[in-house]
Amino acid sequence: MSLKPKHVEFESTWSQIRSTVEKVIVLKHVQRSEWNDRFPDLYQLCVAFPEPLGDRVYNETKAFLDQHVKQLYDTVVKSSHEELLSAYHQQWLIYREGVTYLNILYMYLNTQHIKKHKYTEADLSYGCVDASEQMLEIGELGLHLWRVNMIEPLKESLVQLLLEAIENDRMGIPQNKSVVQGVILSLVHVEEYKKKGSLDLYQNLFESRFLRSTGEYYRREAEELLQSCYCSTYMEKVLAKLDAENLRSRSFLHSSSYPRVTAECESRMVGDHLSFLQSECRSMVQNEARRDLQNMYRLLKPIDSGLQALISEIQEHITNKGLESISSINSLSSDKTPRDDNIPQLFVENLLQVHKQHLNLIKEVFNGDQSFIGALDKACAAVINHRLNLKLPCRSPELLARYCDGLLKKSVKGNTESEIDDKLSACITIFKYIDDKDVFQKFYSKMLAKRLIHSQSVSMDAEESMINKLKQACGYEFTSKLHRMFTDIKVSDDLNNNFNDYVRNNRIELGINFNIYVLQAGAWPLNQSALSPFAIPQALEKSVSSFEKFYASKFNGRKLTWLHHLCQCEIKFGFTKRAYSVVMGTYHMAVLLLFESTDQLTYHELQENTKLTDEQLQRHLQSLIDHKILLVDGNTSSKSNESTDEELSNTATSSTFPTQSQQSPETVYTLNLNYSNKRMKFKITAVQQKEVQQVMQQEVEQTHASVDEDRKLYLQAAIVRIMKDRKVLKHNQLIEQVINQSKNRFTPSVQMIKKCIEALMEKQYLERNTSNTDEYSYIA
Question: Which CATH number do you get for residue 244?
Fold first, then answer.
């Protein structure tokens, strides 16, 4: 075939093309040779000489398709009312496929002629041309003519029949779903060629009326169900109807309608009765009716603000359960309540049980919805930071620190390392909710110091693991001192090895095994207020002086402060029939060493030789008497000198140690030469049982006082940082920024911040602006 343009007889050529088009549009059989011959015929018409005939071909094809659709319309209209949808659908399927084939046949006309004459989007958008004059590709033209000649005349009948068919399907009357869906989707397919507004016909003609009828249907359904059902049954039936309607939408409608239909049903059956459903939330939450709560969640979630009442009820419920779980722990209400070693364990484990229980509830019932997770967090924070007495500090940080101390301290519980690690990880769950994290830090560091100094840690790996968990939760700054404490222990081990080498190289005979910890004063929370004047026993003098010389030779300018009240020693009794190995404090040892040359000493002689204060000396004498190692005037006729740890725990109530008013310098203390004990190795502590609670109370008060001082310094540093950066700042803005910087460690009161500002003004870091007293300036 020649591609060169030539003169073409239009009528004869078009007659052949029309004959083929008539067969194709009704899907009649067309010979392959005939089909192939039509392509060059259309090409020759489009490039005909002397004038192309593309416009004429387009107009003739348009006229043919227009006439053909009108004939199909006449055929469809003759159908009965009941058969109208089936007749329409049958003709549409044939016509749509025929137009698809025609679009292929007219490919050259579409690409080379029609596209060149098409208006741009800008022309159509700004009204430069009439959209009705737009040339369409043959496939698009065929769909356009179907809309104009078939859908527009039949639209009222079609829509009414479609709505009736879907209504009947809801009533359980079987419908030809393929026909109904095909007719509905024809409203979409007939304009699918449009780049914009391809769903306008579908939405304006059918969807809007369908949504109105659907809403009216489910409004009636909801009213009928409410009159005959309780809330639980109502929810189940509503969910069943929603599921059925969603399935129906996918059987009949275009995908763009799915969310709109669901929203309409939810609005009529849930949104219109929101107050009724929300009023039932409280009883469901209190009874933890999981199935009902799950149904309620599914119904309320799509509604704007629908879940708010349920979230509030869940938060209140968890709060009440949490407070109830710790209500029996009386020590939470007052620092003056007697303490129990089980209180920290009960506190933490009860709260963890509440948290775990309701976290599982949220995951299973509410699919882990973050709104409910937030409610759980708020509830747990409210419980953990709850204070019955607002004048007293919150006990949660202290109790959590004591619980961690119980896990990390050597005990007879026999927890495995994995169990300890799991429990420590659970502690972080509680820790994250604590507002006063600095209080926890202070208590934890004090307890860690005791464990490290007295070698009471169950495992150094467990200690380090806990610190790393705290660092992940709060950052390096929070745990920097804890890391330094670990470093000091490791450095002290090396220092002891070097000291032993020093002693060996200098041939110094110490006479005892001597081990020290050199600790940084800034990192360790050691109570130096307990320091007492003390005359070092002669047995220790050589060791202490030798170490001081050694340390001075290694570190020039550093000063050592000996904390003898924290030291321990192990001595063996040589005056008893059996050999006992006893661990005791340095002050105990100093008292007992005085009895090496005599069996009796007066109180005055003991104090003169030890230089201890009355308080310290009396406390340590009392513990020696409780263990029946020493006897005091009038207490030499004991029924039995044999003692056990169980007996010693009760001696505080029956001790005959003189009170302060009875104490005199001439009171005589005698070494019990008949001493015996069932245990060959035991430990003597300085604090009596009856004083434990009093001492712990003092420690707690001192810790909180220390925290208050640290907070003041922290806030002053934060204020200086902020003002140094901003130079000038108003009062309320400064308060807000200070709170934001401090909230990760503690929540400062506005009153405390004001006092810190005043302190900095006195130190001349800040000043008030003379022109505006509500504004501060930084003094460089």
Answer: 1.20.1310.10
With a cut of 80, say whether residue 688 has pLDDT above it.
Answer: no
- Shared domain for 351 and 370, answered yes or no, is yes
Higher-scoring residue by pLDDT: 335, 38? 38
Amino acid at 39: F
Q: How far is CA 133 from the centre of its chain?
A: 61
**Count of residues in the chain:** 780
Mark whether 353 and 426 lie in a shared domain.
Answer: yes
Q: Which of 547, 565, 583 is the last residue of a domain?
A: 565
- The answer on pLDDT for 284 being more than 80 is yes
pLDDT at 292 > cutoff 60: yes
386 occurs within a structural domain = yes
Give the domain extent around 354: 308-474
Buried b (16+ CB within 10 A) or exposed e, 382-401: bbbebeeeeeebbbbbbbbb
Task: Give yes or no: residues 70 and 113 share one domain.
Answer: yes
**What single letter denotes the amino acid at residue 278?**
Q
Pair 85, 165: CB distance under 8 Å: yes
Compute the radius of gyration of the chain from its Cα atoms: 46
Q: Give me 115's structure tokens.
A: 């596209």
Separation CA 235–CA 558 (nearest Å): 77
The token duo for 779 is: 């003094």
Give the tokens for residue 26: 């009704």
Check whether the bond before 525 is cis (ω within 30° of 0): no
Asked if residue 553 is part of any domain, the answer here is: yes
CA dihedral 744, 748, 750, 754 (to 10 degrees): -110
Burial 464-492 (b: 16+ CB within 10 A, else e): ebbbebbbeebeeebbebbeebbebbeeb
Give dist(CA 391, CA 48) in Å, integer: 102
The answer to which of 328-332, 624-628, 657-661, 680-684 has the lowest mean pLDDT is: 657-661
3-class secondary structure per residue, 548-613: HHHHHHHCCCCCCCCCHHHCEEEEECCCCCCCCEEEEEHHHHHHHHHHHCCCEEEHHHHHHHHCCC
Helical spans, DSSP H, in 147-257 = 152-170, 177-189, 200-201, 208-228, 231-252
Clarify whether residues 416 and 427 are in a common domain.
yes
